[in-house]
Every structure is written in C-alpha cells, then in structure tokens.
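Thread: "does anyone have the structure for this chain?"

Original post by V.I.:
We have the sequence but no experimental structure in hand. Need at least a predicted one for the grant figures.
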Amino acid sequence: MKHVLLLLAALSAIPVFADKAPIVDKLVLNVTDAYIRTMPPGQRVTAGFLTISNDGAEDCQILSATSSFSERIEFHQHLYADGMMQMRPLAQVLVTAGETVKFSPGGLHLMLFDVAKPLVVNAIVPIRLLTDHCGTLLVNLQIRNLLQRPMMEH
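Reply from O.Q.:
Generated one for you, tokens below.
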C-alpha cells in the first residue's frame, strides 16, 4: 500500500512539471553543405552558403541569422533586373514544407558584415538561424578558400 501511495504521489506531480517543460518536436529543418568564403585582404564582408530542407508538414520562415563572428548577417538575393544583375536584401526566407532552399553563389545567400576575426580555411564558424515556429538552428559553416569556390550557374 505504501508503494501505491508513493507511485500515485509521483504520478500526480508529472503534469505540474510537464506544463513548464518546453515541447520539443522532431527537428524539421535540416542543413547541409554550409560554408563561408574567405575574404580578400582588407575586406570585412563575406558570403555564406548552405542548403536547408524542410522535412516537416508546415512551412517555416527563417527570420534572422546571428553570430558572434559577425556584427550583422543578412539574407540577400541576386536578381536580374533592367538588364543588370542586382543584389537585394530579403527580410526572411520561406522554406516550404517538403521543399529545399539552396543558398548558392549567384542566387540566395547570406551576407556576413563586419567580420572582425581573420578567416582560417577549414575552421568552423557557428551561426544561429531563428525561425517563426520551427525553432532555432545552430549551423556550423566551414570556411573555404575564396579561390576554390564553385562556378556560378548561368
């Protein structure tokens, strides 16, 4: 009888703790091939690239990116307009359910501003991607040599 009372007391406490604990769903956004480029001497801006797949049933908006490595990170898109290639900032990036978004040279990419530390090839730079309701992702971007970048697609 003593064991039953202890068990009931323990079980009655579970809802109290469960209400305060965050609900963690299966991670729905998966990031692959994440990297940034080294910078030419004297520059403090570089670009980052990655692929994000949404394996969930709902769309996810990536709202912002942050890193202690860079003062500011923005989403940018290359667009061909009025006979010229232009780069435009985006407020957020939609990753539709079941789809993949590729941040690549000549297209959608990250811009890292005011990079204070030297970029060492093969080192890792962590960034955080904040989403609307799909959680915060910690992404490790490998530093790659600017001269070894893939060619842009035309």
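V.I.: this helps a lot. The beta strands are 29-37, 46-54, 60-67, 70-81, 84-90, 93-95, 100-103, 109-115, 124-131, 136-144.
O.Q.: and The longest strand covers residues 70-81.
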